[in-house]
Amino acid sequence: MASFLASDSPVADFDYDEPAAVDIVDATVALDVAGQTLPAEADGQAVRGSWSTLDLPAVGRYPVYVLVASGERTQRVLVDWLVVVDPADEWYNAITARLDWAGAPEPDGIIARLLEVAREQVEEYGPNLPAGTPVPERYRSAQLVQARNTWNASLTNGDAQVDVGGFVVNVRPLDWAVKQLIRPLTATKAVG
Q1: 118 phi and psi, to 5 degrees?
Q2: In Å, how far are 31, 67, 166 from 40, measured between CA atoms?
Q3: What is the DSSP string of 76-130?
Q4: What is the mean pLDDT of each run of 10 residues along the chain (192 residues)?
Q5: How far is 180 from 172, CA to CA, in rounded Å?
Q6: Three-state helix/strand/coil letters over 9-72
Q7: Element containing residue 5 per DSSP (H, E)
Q8: Whole-angstrom Cα Rg for the chain
Q9: Can you give the pLDDT at residue 26?
């Protein structure tokens, strides 16, 4: 998993399963992410190195490749997604969602996409908030529940499928419980 706050200076190490392409005799490896090449070593089981030489790019998602080189030839193998989040953003992100979502998908890129899609759905369904208004907790909760519902739907067979960056997701409409979080029903008085 590779998620960092935009204000971070990473110090953590990375450890990815070694892709089959590394089995080439005399192959060297590095990590290629956000236009930067990070030194790495392969030991027959994993590709290891440190994020400490990475200059974090802008907020967003970036593919992480193991770069395998042998002579004049190179090959990139997608192994993860780097997620850089805005620490001032009030919505759930790949870092904060893990605190409240037991069993969240492991690759940070997947959880980031699920949360982004759920946020868009909540913002479209919910009443517009005046500029500068804090995000209501019920909107945040609805985002997390909808992301979880979408993830769970992708684990089952369904009719409506969408390719999301290489992953097939069964799209489900907003769950009734999510709708209730966003637009709570209010009692109306009636005079008979």
Answers
A1: -65, -40
A2: 6, 9, 26
A3: EEEEEEEEEE-TT--S--TTTHHHH-TT--SSHHHHHHHHHHHHHHHHHHSPPPP
A4: 90 91 82 96 92 95 93 91 95 95 90 94 89 93 93 69 58 68 63 60
A5: 16
A6: CCCCEEEEECCHHHHCCCCEEEEEECCEEEEEEECCCEEEEEHHHCCCCCCEEEEEEEEEEECC
A7: strand 2-5
A8: 21
A9: 80
Within 8 A by CB and 6+ apart from 179, the residues are 125
pTM for this prediction: 0.76
- As a whole number of angstroms, the distance between CA 145 and CA 158 comes to 19
Amino acid in position 30: A
pLDDT at 152: 86
